[in-house]
Amino acid sequence: MVKLNKIYTKTGDKGTTMLTSGDIVPKFDLRIEAYGCVDELNAQLGMACILAKKGSKLADLLQYIQHDLFDLGADLSTPKVEGEAPDAALRIIASQVSALEQNIDEFNANLTALKSFVLPNGTQLAVQLHICRTVTRRAERIVAQLMSEQAEQTNAESLKYLNRLSDLFFVLSRYDNDLSGQGDILWKPAKNR
Questions:
Q1: CA-to-CA distance for 162 and 60, rounded, in angstroms?
Q2: Is residue 133 part of a domain?
Q3: How many domains are there within the chain?
Q4: Which has fewest Cβ within 10 Å: 4, 104, 141, 186?
């Protein structure tokens, strides 16, 4: 259980921070960048939660994902160790990735097949979901680099989770545009030439 009594610690005043493992690293460490980007994503998702109709299936799913993102941040902030016992650290697991896939399939089931790329436009919620999608893609790139540089200390499921999550945000943005009756705004190549 997390207990936060004191909010400031002054430990970061010299440009360093502590990982969950207790290791002290620079604030610009790639692992810090990875879970910092996930934290930013969660804040952007909070705005999407506000824009979603309270009590709707979509609003419930977005808040569900916020909990997963805290799990992901905990995972990324705790480097794996050799011989790590199951449940020794909070890790993203395959069933969380599968849950995203099931939601992608469910929300995509009745959407029209695309014949062009979609502009990040439409309803306010759809646009916010596109912002979440792009922040997710940035987090994914950072975690991919972390996997490349620290594969033994990084959970591979975290990268899979981010990859599926960006796809889900894309589908959910289309879903909200469809639900509103507005529909997607498609890219028209060379439209302004």
A1: 19
A2: yes
A3: 1
A4: 4
Asked if 102 and 168 count as a contact pair (C-beta separation under 8 A), the reply is no
Which domain, by its residues, includes 132?
53-77+90-108+118-184
Ranges under pLDDT 50 in the chain = none
Does any domain span residue 14? no
The answer to the question of residue 173 being in a domain is yes
Within a domain: 48: no
For residues 36 and 91, give the distance between their C-alpha atoms in angstroms, rounded to a whole number.
17
In contact, 172 and 108? CB cutoff 8 Å: no
Angle, alpha carbons 131-19-141 (nearest 5°): 35
Per the rule left: phi > 0, alpha: psi between -120 and 50, beta: everything else, 28 is alpha
Closest CA to 171 of 131, 122, 129: 129
Q: What is the DSSP letter of 151?
A: G
Radius of gyration of the chain (CA): 18
Using alpha carbons, select from 161, 142, 138, 139 the residue that is nearest to residue 150.
142
In eight-state DSSP terms, residue 112 is P
Threshold 0.70, pTM exceeds: yes
- Tokens, residue 158: 């975290």
**In which residue are the tokens 């889900």 written?**
168
pLDDT digits (tens, 9 = 90+) for 29-79: 899 999 999 999 999 999 999 999 999 999 999 999 999 999 999 999 999
